[in-house]
Task: inverse folding
């Protein structure tokens, strides 16, 4: 058991250092010593992020004639966050270690000793549970057992946008804590200005911000992150039927994204917030254990009820089919881009021994690869080879993210591309020029090489990258 844990710790360390070394993820503000729980995505990281977002958008909008997109702003009327319950209730319980001053999440400390804490618990209730388990709980930073009282800490990030007074903190604006509120407050606009009819969904990708207490686990939990959320509006009596359909669709999404099924599982929420009908998470088997990747929740009419109440606007829907008037119920799918990227990397990261040599290879789905095709001249100092390779590169880059590389021996170039998950490498050699105008195409996973005529490369890759 211990050995297995150690291996997994190693895997996480490897992934973190790999992400830095190969330009996927950098700690934010690194030359200033970093900025806790914020990360930047490097040249390959941003390509992977974009490919994940493209995949999600295609799956959730393009392929669905009942879902439309939206891009609402990060700042919204502060009352929205009162209506949603975030101002009063979006809080995590926190303690500080009296020895090392580490700030820790109490629900996580309790979870580590096998006690489940309910997010609805009051400060008093959670203090009582914490005290009852005090002897078992150690600081995860220094190992000591001396803590302050539990305090609930609100996660919304405040801002002085449009407030020019000295004491703006009394009347702040908020950076959005989740993107879906922008969907709820635009639902009426979408109904009034497009041809959607219930049941229909609104999808959005965008940044969200939370004052997360713990800054561990790399990009799993960050203070600035991007969410991909889809809110589906249903007739009240069809909510659970649509919910089951959405659950099945979201599960299939991960299989199509190329995640191994054995690393995924459903977790049903035991403690539901009062308005929820049912809530499931899709969990991924990260190196630090199974953790939430995405939430698929049936939210009833809570969101539109709250926004009706706080805005004073009637948000009910006049159903043109049944003639009924009702407040739609909402089911949602919500997942982070960074968390998906971490799951995709963990799933794809492979170490193999090939002919006695170690190779690291990212075996993710071809369409997720940051670079699709690498083009090499066999030798750097042969102008004819370089010119031909450049010509091929210039033609392929019109359709694919490509990389030209003439540095080092060919074996090293293959290894570099394997490490970033490039599915195909094209090499221009002497045969290309002297014989038959063909190149070698080498496959990342099988490492097999085949000769393909330059004139046939376009159709060859069109077939390989067919969605
Ligand atoms: N609208 C529902 C909602 O926001 P959530 O469970 O708080 O629900 C949904 O978040 C998803 O957003 C999570 O499953 C996770 O993928 C991502 N997420 C949430 N907080 C995050 C954080 N601090 N860092 C990275 N991703 C986060």
Result:
């Amino acid at each position: 058991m211990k050995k297995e844990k150690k291996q997994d710790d190693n895997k996480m360390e490897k992934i973190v250092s790999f992400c830095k070394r190969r330009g996927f993820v950098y700690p934010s503000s690194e030359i200033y010593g970093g900025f806790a729980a914020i990360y930047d995505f490097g040249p390959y990281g941003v390509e992977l992020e974009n490919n994940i977002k493209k995949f999600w958008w295609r799956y959730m909008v393009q392929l669905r004639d009942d879902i439309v997109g939206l891009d609402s702003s990060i700042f919204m009327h502060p009352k929205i966050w009162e209506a949603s319950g975030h101002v009063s209730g979006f809080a995590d319980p926190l303690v500080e270690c009296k020895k090392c001053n580490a700030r820790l999440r109490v629900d996580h400390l309790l979870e580590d000793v096998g006690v489940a804490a309910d997010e609805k618990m009051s400060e008093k209730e959670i203090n009582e549970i914490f005290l009852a388990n005090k002897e078992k709980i150690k600081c995860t930073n220094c190992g000591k057992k001396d803590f302050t009282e539990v305090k609930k800490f609100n996660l919304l990030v405040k801002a002085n946008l449009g407030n020019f007074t000295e004491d703006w903190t009394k009347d702040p604006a908020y950076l959005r804590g989740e993107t879906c509120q922008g969907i709820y407050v635009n639902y009426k606009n979408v109904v009034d200005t497009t041809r959607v009819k219930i049941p229909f969904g609104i999808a959005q990708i965008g940044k969200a911000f939370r004052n997360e207490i713990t800054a561990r686990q790399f990009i799993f939990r960050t203070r600035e992150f991007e969410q991909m959320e889809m809110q589906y509006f249903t007739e009240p009596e069809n909510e659970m039927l649509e919910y089951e359909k959405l659950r099945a669709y979201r599960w299939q999404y991960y299989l199509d994204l190329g995640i191994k099924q054995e690393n995924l599982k459903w977790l049903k929420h035991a403690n539901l917030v009062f308005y929820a009908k049912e809530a499931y998470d899709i969990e991924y088997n990260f190196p630090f254990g199974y953790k939430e990747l995405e939430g698929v929740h049936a939210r009833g009419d809570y969101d539109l009820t709250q926004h009706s109440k706080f805005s004073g606007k009637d948000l009910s829907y006049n159903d043109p089919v049944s003639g009924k008037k009702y407040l739609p119920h909402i089911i949602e799918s919500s997942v982070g881009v960074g968390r998906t990227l971490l799951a995709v990397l963990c799933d794809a990261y492979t170490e193999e021994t090939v002919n006695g040599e170690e190779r690291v290879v990212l075996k993710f789905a071809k369409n997720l690869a940051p670079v699709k095709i690498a083009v090499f001249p066999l030798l750097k100092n042969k102008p004819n080879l370089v010119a031909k390779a450049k010509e091929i590169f210039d033609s392929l880059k019109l359709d694919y993210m490509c990389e030209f590389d003439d540095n080092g021996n060919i074996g090293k170039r293959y290894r570099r591309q394997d490490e970033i998950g490039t599915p195909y490498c094209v090499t221009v050699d002497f045969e290309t020029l002297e014989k038959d105008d063909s190149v070698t195409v080498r496959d990342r996973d099988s490492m097999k090489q085949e000769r393909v005529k330059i004139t046939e490369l376009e159709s060859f890759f069109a077939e390989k990258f067919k969605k």
The CA atoms of residues 423 and 446 lie 10 Å apart.
